[in-house]
Amino acid sequence: QSVLTQPPSVSGTPGQKVTISCSGSRSNVGFNSVSWYQHLPGAAPKLLIYTTNQRPSGVPDRFFGSKSGTSASLAITELQSEDEGDYYCAAWDGAHSVIFGGGTRLTVL
Amino acid sequence: QVQLVESGGTLVQPGRSLRLSCTGSGFNFYNYGMHWVRQAPGKGLEWVSVTSHDGSESYYADSVKGRFIISRDNSKNTLYLQMNNVRNDDTAVYYCARVRPLRVLRGWLDTWGRGALVSVSS
Question: Are A66 and A58 in contact (CB under 8 A)?
Answer without folding.
Answer: no
